[in-house]
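Exercise 7.
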Amino acid sequence: MGVSLAVENIKCGGCANGIKQKLATIEGVKNVQVDIEAGLVSCELNESSDNDSILNSIKQQLATMGYPEVGSVEGLKAAGAKAKSYVSCAVGKMTDSSS
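Solution. The predicted structure, written as tokens, is:
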């Protein structure tokens, strides 16, 4: 099963790399793709997994990194998410294996 989420704060390849690395560690998630321009995170879920639980884990991990689902945070929480995304982006740039 494939899922796609529209998320906020994706700015560059560093963001995408960090997202791919973190989501790949969630059991049941495979083939993570990030569309930077569209702000979409897509991945495949293992067929035999609890998809609702995995989807919640994905959303929680993205929010923790500063990439919340579009429309899910406002005000100070949105500002906090943006700040977290800068840190996640920097870490993603430092660990980018394609550089």
